[in-house]
Amino acid sequence: MPNWICNQIEIRGDEDKVLAIVMHAAGKAFGKEFASVDDALCAWRDAKDEPLMSDFDREDYPETFLKYDTANYNSATGRFPDGEKEAYLQAEKEQMEKYGVVGWYDYNLLRFGCKWNMGVGLVGYVPGLFQISVDTPWSEPDGWLERMAKDFGVTIVNEVDGEIDYPYESIYEDGSRIENFQ
Fold first, then answer.
1. Which DSSP letter does residue 35 get?
2. If 0-12 CB within 10 Å is exposed, 13-18 middle and 19+ buried, where does residue 140 land?
3. Which of 5, 37, 9 is nearest to 149 (CA)?
4. What is the residue-wise DSSP string for 1-23?
5. Which of 19, 26, 173, 180 has the fewest CB atoms within 10 Å, measured from its CB?
6. pLDDT score of 18
């Protein structure tokens, strides 16, 4: 199993749809609306921290996730302090109902297809084509790419390389991976 995967991603489609992705991600990442795509791209290039994969999503990323350590769970004894187990179990139930999983790890696997919400580097933009790069742990972020292709109505081509035996290319359309070339 590879430790990291280098994803060179091309988002292709109608000029307006691709522009909407750039403006949405930059606006969400930097907390403001940009007057032009050039302003958004300049902010991206000059930023100290890259936008995250969750900045491309239409819905917000949850701020916190239920963890044993937030409930003062004692991993040495395998016990909660008195009265905290019930509160933890209630929070666990609520998180399962809302997200379908419990904990940041399972949520990220479900949402992104990899364990971390990674930074997204800007490679280039021309009308109808947006190129980004993201390094992910263990696997390509297929959940994220499928959702982005569906939400924005674009085609996404991901050239995958890194600590793998063979590079490959995946194509996403209409919310699913349609091709996987070696």
1. S
2. buried
3. 9
4. --SEEEEEEEEES-HHHHHHHHH
5. 180
6. 92
- The rounded distance, in Å, linking the Cα atoms of 154 and 150 is 7
Beta strands in 38-153 (DSSP E): 121-126, 129-137
Distance separating alpha carbons of residues 66 and 96, to the nearest angstrom = 10
- How far is CA 174 from each of CA 24, 91, 120, 178, rounded to the nearest angstrom? 19, 34, 22, 9
Q: 110: which residues sit within 8 A by CB, 6+ positions away?
A: 99, 100, 101, 143
Q: How far apart are CA 128 and CA 19, in angstroms?
A: 7
Q: Give 86: exposed, middle or buried? Use CB within 10 Å, 0-12, 13-18, 19+.
A: exposed
